[in-house]
Amino acid sequence: MSLPYDNNTYKVKPLRIHDGDTFTGEIDLGFNVRIVMTFRLEGLNTPEVVGKEKAAGLVSKAFLEDKTNNAKEVLVRTKKKEKYGRYLATVFCDGVNVNEQLIKEGYAVPMAY
Q1: CA 65, 38, 23: angle at the middle one, nearest 5?
Q2: Banded model confidence at residue 1, pLDDT cuts 50, 70, 90
Q3: Domain definitions of the chain by residue range
Q4: What class, spelled out in words, does domain 9-103 have in CATH?
Q5: Whole-prediction pTM value?
């Protein structure tokens, strides 16, 4: 399933999954222009991968790694940065909204920005 592209949707090659709601990826801007950026998944929060939430955090991180590593196409749709300078993003793996999946399957809780 392909998504319609707009000015805020980009192909991304995930490079490092930090936790269940943050990753760094290489964005393809077209014409052989690529940049590396860090993204914060919008509208949700996952457990941290350190401290008392570590076990649950590692599970949500593994879920995001599995989805992005096994997808033929990973897209991010983003429009703004959050307070730490990361772009807020909705992630699509082969057309499936991963943000919604994380919440639906219990790996994340909804969070408004």
Answers
A1: 10
A2: very low
A3: 9-103
A4: mainly beta
A5: 0.90
